[in-house]
Specification:
The structure is a single chain. The protein contains four helices and four strands, in the order ααβαββαβ. By secondary structure, it is an alpha+beta fold. It folds into two domains: 55 residues, no CATH class; 83 residues, Alpha-Beta Plaits (2-Layer Sandwich), CATH 3.30.70.240. A four-stranded antiparallel beta sheet has the order 2-3-1-4. A hairpin with a 4-residue loop joins β2 and β3. α1 runs parallel beside α2.
Protein backbone atom coordinates (compact mmCIF):
# COMPACT_ATOMS: atom_id res chain seq x y z
CA UNK A 1 0.00 0.00 0.00
CA UNK A 2 1.40 3.38 -0.96
CA UNK A 3 0.49 6.39 1.17
CA UNK A 4 1.78 9.90 0.97
CA UNK A 5 0.89 13.23 2.52
CA UNK A 6 2.24 16.75 2.32
CA UNK A 7 1.74 19.89 4.39
CA UNK A 8 2.72 21.94 1.30
CA UNK A 9 3.74 25.08 3.15
CA UNK A 10 1.38 24.73 6.09
CA UNK A 11 2.86 24.41 9.59
CA UNK A 12 4.40 20.96 10.00
CA UNK A 13 1.85 18.25 10.85
CA UNK A 14 -1.24 20.44 10.44
CA UNK A 15 -2.45 19.44 6.95
CA UNK A 16 -1.08 16.29 5.29
CA UNK A 17 -1.09 13.91 8.24
CA UNK A 18 -4.57 14.94 9.51
CA UNK A 19 -5.95 14.53 5.97
CA UNK A 20 -4.34 11.09 5.58
CA UNK A 21 -5.56 10.00 9.02
CA UNK A 22 -9.12 11.07 8.17
CA UNK A 23 -8.95 8.84 5.08
CA UNK A 24 -7.41 5.90 6.92
CA UNK A 25 -10.11 6.04 9.61
CA UNK A 26 -12.92 6.28 7.06
CA UNK A 27 -15.23 3.27 7.16
CA UNK A 28 -16.75 2.35 3.79
CA UNK A 29 -19.21 0.17 5.70
CA UNK A 30 -19.55 0.03 9.49
CA UNK A 31 -16.40 -1.50 10.95
CA UNK A 32 -14.56 -1.72 7.61
CA UNK A 33 -11.73 0.65 6.68
CA UNK A 34 -10.92 -0.50 3.15
CA UNK A 35 -10.63 2.58 0.96
CA UNK A 36 -8.09 2.47 -1.84
CA UNK A 37 -7.22 4.52 -4.91
CA UNK A 38 -8.11 7.79 -3.17
CA UNK A 39 -6.56 11.20 -3.68
CA UNK A 40 -7.47 14.33 -1.73
CA UNK A 41 -6.53 17.96 -2.29
CA UNK A 42 -7.70 20.62 0.17
CA UNK A 43 -7.41 24.32 -0.62
CA UNK A 44 -7.50 26.76 2.28
CA UNK A 45 -8.51 30.37 1.67
CA UNK A 46 -8.76 31.62 5.23
CA UNK A 47 -7.53 30.77 8.70
CA UNK A 48 -3.81 30.41 9.17
CA UNK A 49 -2.66 32.35 12.23
CA UNK A 50 -6.22 33.06 13.34
CA UNK A 51 -7.04 29.34 13.54
CA UNK A 52 -3.78 28.23 15.11
CA UNK A 53 -2.29 24.76 14.70
CA UNK A 54 -5.21 22.96 16.41
CA UNK A 55 -7.76 24.83 14.32
CA UNK A 56 -5.93 23.96 11.12
CA UNK A 57 -5.83 20.26 12.04
CA UNK A 58 -9.58 20.31 12.78
CA UNK A 59 -10.38 22.26 9.60
CA UNK A 60 -8.44 19.89 7.35
CA UNK A 61 -9.76 16.74 9.04
CA UNK A 62 -13.36 17.93 9.04
CA UNK A 63 -13.22 19.08 5.39
CA UNK A 64 -12.03 15.64 4.28
CA UNK A 65 -14.66 13.89 6.41
CA UNK A 66 -17.42 16.15 5.03
CA UNK A 67 -16.27 15.56 1.45
CA UNK A 68 -16.17 11.79 2.00
CA UNK A 69 -19.73 11.89 3.34
CA UNK A 70 -20.79 13.20 -0.07
CA UNK A 71 -18.47 11.12 -2.26
CA UNK A 72 -20.03 8.22 -4.14
CA UNK A 73 -18.14 5.04 -3.30
CA UNK A 74 -17.61 2.20 -5.75
CA UNK A 75 -16.37 -1.33 -5.35
CA UNK A 76 -13.92 -2.59 -7.96
CA UNK A 77 -14.70 -6.16 -9.07
CA UNK A 78 -13.47 -8.46 -11.81
CA UNK A 79 -16.59 -9.13 -13.90
CA UNK A 80 -17.46 -10.70 -17.23
CA UNK A 81 -18.53 -8.17 -19.84
CA UNK A 82 -21.22 -9.15 -22.32
CA UNK A 83 -22.62 -7.22 -25.26
CA UNK A 84 -26.27 -7.02 -26.19
CA UNK A 85 -27.14 -5.71 -29.66
CA UNK A 86 -30.63 -4.25 -30.00
CA UNK A 87 -32.43 -1.87 -32.30
CA UNK A 88 -32.02 1.79 -31.37
CA UNK A 89 -35.69 2.17 -30.45
CA UNK A 90 -35.49 -0.74 -27.99
CA UNK A 91 -32.22 0.22 -26.28
CA UNK A 92 -33.51 2.76 -23.75
CA UNK A 93 -36.28 0.53 -22.46
CA UNK A 94 -34.02 -2.51 -22.26
CA UNK A 95 -31.24 -0.61 -20.46
CA UNK A 96 -33.76 0.74 -17.95
CA UNK A 97 -35.19 -2.74 -17.34
CA UNK A 98 -31.73 -4.22 -16.83
CA UNK A 99 -30.68 -1.44 -14.43
CA UNK A 100 -33.95 -1.83 -12.52
CA UNK A 101 -33.24 -5.55 -12.20
CA UNK A 102 -29.87 -4.80 -10.56
CA UNK A 103 -27.57 -5.40 -13.52
CA UNK A 104 -24.42 -3.27 -13.82
CA UNK A 105 -24.32 -1.44 -17.14
CA UNK A 106 -20.74 -1.01 -18.35
CA UNK A 107 -21.19 1.03 -21.51
CA UNK A 108 -23.27 1.88 -24.54
CA UNK A 109 -22.19 2.05 -28.18
CA UNK A 110 -24.15 3.26 -31.17
CA UNK A 111 -23.80 1.76 -34.62
CA UNK A 112 -25.61 2.50 -37.88
CA UNK A 113 -28.22 -0.22 -37.30
CA UNK A 114 -28.19 -1.05 -33.61
CA UNK A 115 -27.19 -0.03 -30.12
CA UNK A 116 -24.74 -2.19 -28.19
CA UNK A 117 -25.35 -2.34 -24.46
CA UNK A 118 -22.58 -3.75 -22.29
CA UNK A 119 -23.55 -5.50 -19.08
CA UNK A 120 -21.10 -6.63 -16.38
CA UNK A 121 -21.91 -9.97 -14.77
CA UNK A 122 -20.39 -12.24 -12.17
CA UNK A 123 -18.13 -14.71 -13.97
CA UNK A 124 -20.01 -17.81 -12.80
CA UNK A 125 -22.31 -19.83 -15.06
CA UNK A 126 -25.35 -19.31 -12.83
CA UNK A 127 -25.17 -15.51 -13.28
CA UNK A 128 -24.69 -15.86 -17.04
CA UNK A 129 -27.60 -18.29 -17.32
CA UNK A 130 -29.84 -16.03 -15.24
CA UNK A 131 -28.93 -13.01 -17.39
CA UNK A 132 -29.66 -14.95 -20.59
CA UNK A 133 -33.09 -15.91 -19.26
CA UNK A 134 -33.86 -12.35 -18.17
CA UNK A 135 -32.73 -10.97 -21.53
CA UNK A 136 -34.86 -13.52 -23.42
CA UNK A 137 -37.85 -12.52 -21.32
CA UNK A 138 -37.30 -8.78 -21.87
CA UNK A 139 -36.72 -9.04 -25.64
CA UNK A 140 -39.01 -11.94 -26.53
CA UNK A 141 -35.89 -13.88 -27.48
CA UNK A 142 -34.68 -11.36 -30.06
CA UNK A 143 -31.40 -10.44 -28.29
CA UNK A 144 -28.50 -12.53 -27.03
CA UNK A 145 -25.53 -12.08 -24.70
CA UNK A 146 -22.19 -11.98 -26.50
CA UNK A 147 -19.22 -12.61 -24.15
CA UNK A 148 -16.47 -9.98 -24.40
CA UNK A 149 -14.08 -11.22 -21.69
CA UNK A 150 -13.44 -10.09 -18.14
CA UNK A 151 -12.49 -6.65 -16.87
CA UNK A 152 -12.18 -4.70 -13.63
CA UNK A 153 -15.43 -2.74 -13.24
CA UNK A 154 -16.33 -0.05 -10.71
CA UNK A 155 -19.68 -1.05 -9.21
CA UNK A 156 -21.64 1.64 -7.32
CA UNK A 157 -22.38 0.77 -3.70
Amino acid sequence: MIQRSSDDGEPSGTAGIPILEALLKRESTPGVTDLSDVSVVVVRYFGGILLGAGGLVRAYSESVSAAMDLAPLVERRRLRLCAINVLHEEAGRLENELRSSGYVMAGTGYGPRHTTLQVALAADEEAISEARSRLASLTAGSAELEPLGTQWVDVPR
